């Protein structure tokens, strides 16, 4: 089954369209853009129950699908209590503006000419959606990895918007280490003989290899030791668990994603830097007024805890919490019980502090 047929089976909850010109950090100007987004729950009377969730690189706009341990009925982020909003990143293939949309200058799909978005460009599109939804205050903003990068950007762009922010396994600027991983993945795509072609499956084999490279940064030595044991002593056997697992993960992603989205989103991540044009990274973080719980994963190779400690050290009302996990960067998706406990403790303490201040 090719990507287009598979994609059509994906449900897009809602679409917001902005028909005003939109200028990207690169200088490119779009005639407009559209965003796919999902909401759970209802906005309460005083509009004080908004939770805005930011997804990571290859996820979609429905956190109940990929963060089911935290989002859903009777979960911590319960739609009976909160109005939950999540937007599909521009450039992704789950309904927002992307490389397969029509370039008005050519009347054909953008493909390789797609004017990719930085994380700052992304949150500037979300501001239009926020206004459309009638939201003036966000109670909690939360996101991991690239989602956390967007959360930090927005917290600086609009310091009064968020009451609490919870960036997880993320950074204030993408590291040389992270860029090297992403560049290596793009090399794999570029070296696919089909990549230069203009069709939806171009570069797909290269993307499978890219995903294999990515997994090495998402997981850890202990992850593979625990879950992917070598099962055969045969020198000619391909039934070695970790090898077949890497191949399987590439095939799995190719059934639901495409090389163009993977390529351009990784470029957006590489150019993440909250300090760009704001004097310095430290000065930018100091502008955040939200109370922040910054969470790191002990075994994270891609976004090591030192990066979250840096954020917490420079955001004025922030604290750092480390989650212990053998699952590396992907721990932010898997260790939901520890994350929930950390959030509960943080919010409870903040409510107690605020109550003391008002006495």
Automatic annotation (TrEMBL):
Signal peptide: none annotated. It is found in: Cytoplasm. Pathway: Amino-acid biosynthesis; L-methionine biosynthesis via de novo pathway; O-acetyl-L-homoserine from L-homoserine: step 1/1. One of its GO terms (cellular component) is cytoplasm. Substrate binds at residues 211, 330. It comes from the Bacteria. The keyword Cytoplasm applies. It is an enzyme of class 2 (transferase). GO terms for biological process: homoserine metabolic process; methionine biosynthetic process. SUPFAM superfamilies: alpha/beta-Hydrolases (SSF53474). Its main location: cytoplasm. GO terms for molecular function: homoserine O-acetyltransferase activity. The active site is at residues 145, 300, 329. Keywords: Acyltransferase, Amino-acid biosynthesis, Cytoplasm, Methionine biosynthesis, Transferase. Residues 50-335 form the AB hydrolase-1 domain. It catalyses: L-homoserine + acetyl-CoA = O-acetyl-L-homoserine + CoA. Its EC number is 2.3.1.31. InterPro entries: AB_hydrolase_1 (IPR000073), AB_hydrolase_fold (IPR029058), HAT_MetX-like (IPR008220). NCBIfam families: homoserO_Ac_trn. Transfers an acetyl group from acetyl-CoA to L-homoserine, forming acetyl-L-homoserine. Belongs to the AB hydrolase superfamily. MetX family. Homodimer. This is Homoserine O-acetyltransferase. The gene is metXA.
């Amino acid at each position: 089954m090719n990507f287009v047929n598979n994609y059509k089976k994906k449900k897009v909850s809602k679409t917001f369209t902005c028909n005003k010109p939109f200028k990207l950090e690169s200088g490119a100007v779009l005639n407009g853009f559209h965003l796919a987004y999902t909401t759970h729950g209802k906005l309460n009377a005083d509009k004080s129950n908004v939770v805005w969730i930011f997804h990571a690189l290859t996820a979609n706009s429905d956190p109940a699908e990929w963060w089911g341990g935290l989002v859903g009925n009777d979960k911590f982020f319960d739609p009976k209590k909160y109005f939950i909003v999540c937007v599909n990143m521009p450039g992704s293939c789950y309904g927002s503006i992307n490389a397969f949309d029509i370039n008005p200058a050519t009347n054909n799909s953008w493909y390789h000419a797609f004017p990719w978005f930085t994380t700052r460009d992304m949150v500037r599109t979300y501001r239009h959606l926020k206004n459309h939804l009638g939201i003036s205050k966000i109670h909690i903003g939360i996101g991991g990895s690239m989602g956390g990068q967007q959360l930090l950007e927005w917290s600086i762009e609009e310091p009064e918007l968020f009451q609490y922010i919870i960036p997880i396994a993320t950074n204030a600027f993408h590291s040389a280490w992270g860029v090297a991983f992403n560049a290596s993945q793009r090399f794999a795509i570029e070296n696919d003989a089909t990549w230069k072609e203009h069709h939806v499956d171009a570069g797909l084999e290269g993307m499978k290899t890219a995903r294999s490279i990515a997994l090495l940064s998402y997981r850890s030595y202990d992850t593979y030791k625990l879950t992917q044991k070598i099962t055969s002593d045969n020198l000619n056997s391909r039934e070695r668990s970790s090898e077949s697992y890497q191949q399987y993960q590439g095939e799995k992603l190719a059934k639901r994603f495409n090389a163009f989205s993977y390529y351009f989103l990784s470029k957006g991540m590489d150019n993440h830097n909250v300090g760009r044009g704001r004097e310095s990274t430290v000065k930018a973080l100091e502008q955040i007024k939200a109370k922040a719980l910054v969470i790191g994963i002990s075994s994270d190779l891609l976004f090591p805890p030192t990066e979250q400690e840096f954020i917490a050290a420079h955001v004025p009302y922030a604290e750092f919490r480390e989650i212990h996990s053998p699952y590396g960067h992907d721990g932010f998706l898997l260790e939901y019980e520890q994350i929930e406990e950390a959030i509960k403790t943080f919010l409870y303490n903040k409510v107690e502090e605020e109550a003391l201040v008002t006495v």
